[in-house]
Amino acid sequence: MKTRLFFCLFVMLLSCISSSAQQSQPQMQPLTFWYGYTINPGKEDEFLDLVKTVGQPVRDKLMADGVVLAWGVQASLLRVPGNSTHFIWYAVADYAGLEKVDSAMRAQISKFNDEASKSGTAKKGQKPAGSVTARLGEVADMSKVHDYLTRDLVIGLSQSAPAGVLPYSRYNFFKVKPGKGADFRKAWEKYNKPVFDKLMADGVILAYGLAVEDVRTEGEFTHFVWYDVKDLASLDKVRAAFIADRDRRSQEEQDALTHLFVSLQDADASRSELTRSLIFHVPAAK
């Protein structure tokens, strides 16, 4: 996963929320729904065809209506046993938006399944049209599906990004100790958020966030940080920026920072993922 979260995962928000409104209202904390699939070898093209045929018209329509803020498909850059290979994700402002997407997708799948059942036998030499459910079962191992619903506690969005970019996304997962969630967020916002803000202002990253599962489905992590870049070379700049930030501090402060973050989490449970976007849709500029 996760994935979260994207030349600007929630670029829609920037066109809807003025700077004055941001000052007077609490920061929006969007929801992202992730469908995690393990795609069978050699079946990626068929999987993407299903996405474009079935899900894309629904999500694009709801995005035009202002319900979906952004959506896309990501593939893991690293092959890890037990992990999903592909994710379909979409972002909405709240649970009302989630319900609209869920209802529309159920109706769309039902429509396609009904059409397949009514199509009858195929012409000679052609394969009979299968239902969406059957076709998905052919391209993915459905016993390994894992869905996530996450919420961004903190989110940073670039006001300018390259058109047509298919971002790479980095995810860092943390298992924060019980009762320490507020302290972890406070420390992250104090010491790490300024680095991300500077990287975004410099055009190195396109968006970033600190997120949690809004509906808890596993115990391997409690929080994750995501950020999007236009190319893999940008990851070197992110690493250099964090090293520079720590190096400018005294040894005493560096040691205190290390102790602080270690005290708030199970360091051995930390994990990372790296994905590339295969599809990335955001609202058209007005």
What features would you highlight for this structure?
elongated, eight-stranded antiparallel beta barrel, disordered N terminus, 286 residues, Alpha-Beta Plaits, alpha+beta
Structure write-up:
The chain is α+β, with helices and mostly antiparallel strands and 286 residues long. Helices cover 40% and strands 23% of the residues. It has nine helices and eight strands. It has an eight-stranded antiparallel beta barrel with strand order 1-3-2-8-5-7-6-4, surrounded by four helices. Helix 3 (44-64) packs across helix 4 (95-118) and helix 3 (44-64) crosses helix 5.
Short synopsis of the structure:
The chain is α+β, with helices and mostly antiparallel strands.
- Given the helix and strand composition, which structural class is it? alpha+beta
Q: Tell me the count of domains.
A: 1
- What is the CATH topology? Alpha-Beta Plaits
Number-wise, the strands total 8
CATH hierarchy: architecture: 2-Layer Sandwich
Distance between the termini: 31 Å
- The portion of residues forming beta strands comes to 15-25%
Low-confidence stretches: 2-24, 121-127
CATH class: Alpha Beta
- Work out the helicity level: 25-40%
Shape designation = elongated
Sequence of secondary-structure elements = HHEHEEHHEEHHEEHHE
Strand order in the largest sheet: 1-3-2-8-5-7-6-4
**Radius of gyration, rounded?**
20 Å
